[in-house]
């Protein structure tokens, strides 16, 4: 079994990795780190949860350390730019560089929208080696001439396909056009749609190629189940399943921001700790929601696909697809949030009659049928809110719905030990 010490990493980085509790490199790390250290451009097909952040962070830190670190970062300029689609992912990448670079005098800063730009511009003026940025805010700062990349050595595009989905690809192209042509470029994407493949061809020079966990493959230790259920009963079914004590930390995926809010409110009304996260939430609200699920103060995080992409939460026991995604690859990304680091996990999907074509697309992609469970009896339709807000506010009184978890924590109407009887 390979170890990080087999990858010719320097001692300060090995100590930092050990301090983070990692012993064995993941497949993407084993493949990518030596190629990056050798100076190659890289084209990597790897989805969330494969360890790809460390796959580029560790060798980048080592290359910067080996090339020399300035006493005053302002004298050397920005040396690394990492473009990423969401502010949550940008923050997590920044934390990773800080943790892995503890023994090195290498600085980083994170730039994203939704907050004031002055602290970010001040950090740039003070001097920084590594910038982790979302495209929109970075382009704003560039247009104001508050940031320059004439000293850039390395460019990383992380989750390039998601940047395409979110409409950032034109901003990404405009940013890249301003960068030095002589640089090392590392390109990470879970999928390779035609426009992303075209971009990779344009900006990479003789790249080394690595691929792990193709998007069509689901994590081996995820137990996948489906309920065919009337859409009006989905919230009641979710509350029912959350009554089981085995659901310790869970992600619930909805298709829209509005539904994320509605479902979270219904769970809170059922005395289940829940919070919603989506693009309309303020940065402070998003950070509080993430802190709650990470610390255990909140059991359930309700999210849209775009908001959840790149969020790294350990020990997720269950994923609930409240809505079946209309893009089949999103199903693979969603359920990949559980069963990480050798753990097992459960993924439950709620399929209404209107969503059956989406389920068929998913089963074609993953090349397997998802076992169907019998929907429990006694579920109640969700009540519409009196304010006409387009969704129910949850149970009228504690315990009025199946699955309400009472004061003693004993779920009512709990699904049997095997989570119900499979129908196929």
How is the main sheet built?
7 strands, parallel
Shape: globular
Number of helices: 15
**Order of secondary-structure elements:** HHEHEHEHEHEHHEHEEHEHEHEHEHEHE
Question: CA-to-CA gap between the ends?
Answer: 39 Å
Contiguous uncertain segments of 5+ residues: 385-418
Number of domains: 2
Mean pLDDT: 84
| Structural class assignment | alpha/beta
Residues in helix, %? 25-40%
What does this structure look like?
The structure is a single chain. The chain has helices at residues 11-19, 27-37, 52-67, 87-100, 118-126, 135-143, 160-165, 169-177, 194-203, 234-242, 257-269, 283-295, 305-308, 328-335, 356-366; strands at 42-45, 80-83, 108-111, 130-133, 154-157, 184-189, 208-211, 222-228, 250-253, 274-277, 300-303, 318-321, 345-351, 372-373. Strand 3 (108-111), helix 5 (118-126) and strand 4 form a beta-alpha-beta unit. The chain has two domains: 4-211, P-loop containing nucleotide triphosphate hydrolases (Rossmann fold); 222-373, 3-Layer(aba) Sandwich (Rossmann fold), CATH 3.40.50. It is 36% helix and 15% strand. The relative contact order is 0.12. It has a seven-stranded parallel beta sheet with strand order 3-4-2-5-6-1-7, with helices on both faces. A seven-stranded parallel beta sheet has the order 10-11-9-12-13-8-14. Helix 2 packs parallel to helix 3 and helix 6 (135-143) crosses helix 8 (169-177). By secondary structure, the protein is of the alpha/beta class. It contains 15 helices and 14 strands.
């Amino acid at each position: 079994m390979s170890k990080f010490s087999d990858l010719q990493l320097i001692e300060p980085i090995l100590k930092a990795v050990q301090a983070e509790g990692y012993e064995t490199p993941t497949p993407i790390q084993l493949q990518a780190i030596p190629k990056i250290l050798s100076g190659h451009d890289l084209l990597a097909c790897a989805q969330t949860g494969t360890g790809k952040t460390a796959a580029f962070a560790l060798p980048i830190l080592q290359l910067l350390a080996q090339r020399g670190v300035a006493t005053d970062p302002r004298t050397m300029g920005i040396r690394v730019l990492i473009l990423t689609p969401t502010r949550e992912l940008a923050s997590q990448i920044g934390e990773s560089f800080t943790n892995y670079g503890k023994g090195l005098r290498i600085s980083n800063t994170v730039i994203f929208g939704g907050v004031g730009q002055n602290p970010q511009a001040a950090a740039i003026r003070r001097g920084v080696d590594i910038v982790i940025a979302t495209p929109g805010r970075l382009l704003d700062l560039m247009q104001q001439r508050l940031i320059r990349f004439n000293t850039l050595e390395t460019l990383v595009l992380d989750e390039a396909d998601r940047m395409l989905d979110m409409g950032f690809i034109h901003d990404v192209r405009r940013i890249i056009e301003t960068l030095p042509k002589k640089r090392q470029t590392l390109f990470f994407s879970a999928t390779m749609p035609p426009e992303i493949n075209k971009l990779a061809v344009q900006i990479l020079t003789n790249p080394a190629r690595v691929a792990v966990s193709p998007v069509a493959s689901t994590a081996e230790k995820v137990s996948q189940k489906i309920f065919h259920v009337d859409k009006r009963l989905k919230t009641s079914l979710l509350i029912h399943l959350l009554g089981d004590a085995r659901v310790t930390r869970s992600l619930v995926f909805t298709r829209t921001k509005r539904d994320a809010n509605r479902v979270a409110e219904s769970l809170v009304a059922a005395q289940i700790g829940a919070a919603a996260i989506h693009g309309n939430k303020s940065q402070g609200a998003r950070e509080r929601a993430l802190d709650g699920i990470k610390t255990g103060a909140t059991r359930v995080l309700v999210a849209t696909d775009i908001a959840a992409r790149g969020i790294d939460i350990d020990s997720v026991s269950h994923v609930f697809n409240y809505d079946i995604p209309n893009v089949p690859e999103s199903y693979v990304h969603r359920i990949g949030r559980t069963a990480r680091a050798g753990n097992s996990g459960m993924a439950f999907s709620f399929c209404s009659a209107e969503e059956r074509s989406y389920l068929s697309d998913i089963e074609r992609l993953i090349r397997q049928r998802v076992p169907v469970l019998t929907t429990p009896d006694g579920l109640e339709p969700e009540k519409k809110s009196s304010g006409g807000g387009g969704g129910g506010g949850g149970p009228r009184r504690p315990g009025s719905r199946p699955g309400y978890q009472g004061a003693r924590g004993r779920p009512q109407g709990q699904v049997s030990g095997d989570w119900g009887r499979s129908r196929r």
